[in-house]
What does this fold into?
Amino acid sequence: MPRDISVPLTEEELEEAKAIFRSMPTYNDKEYILSQDIRLFVESVGYERTPEQIAAYIQYWDKNFGGKIPLGETMDVLSFVHNTPVVMCNRAAVFDKDGNGFISSDEFVELVQLMIIHDPRVEAVSFDEFIKQADTNHDGKVSIDECGIWIHDRFQQLGYTK
It folds into this structure.
């Protein structure tokens, strides 16, 4: 039976996930695995994802991180996997590739793609619509914090309660 993604992992389960991560075929002493191990890792941890989601995760890691998935980041995501808005808010900071504290059009496209991968019920919106919805201080830009609030609101609209 697949693991319920809405239930937080215990410390013991996180340690078990860490051991599973380290047992993956591409694991190395630099504490990462390659994206080709995503399907096996997800299945081994007990989560159920569609083949399309797995393919999209692989594409995400290949495009953004050269196919390398770090142990630390994986454990961070697993710590909050039951709380999708928190996971996605944490991802928003990663998408700020130029480190200026704001989400650009290109960064936004990638972020929304990840949100849709995680939950296909997420509706895509244009960058202009995103600015209208998320720019709460009306400076014409969306900060990481404003983006996090926007993400949280989007997932609450889908019925996420955390």
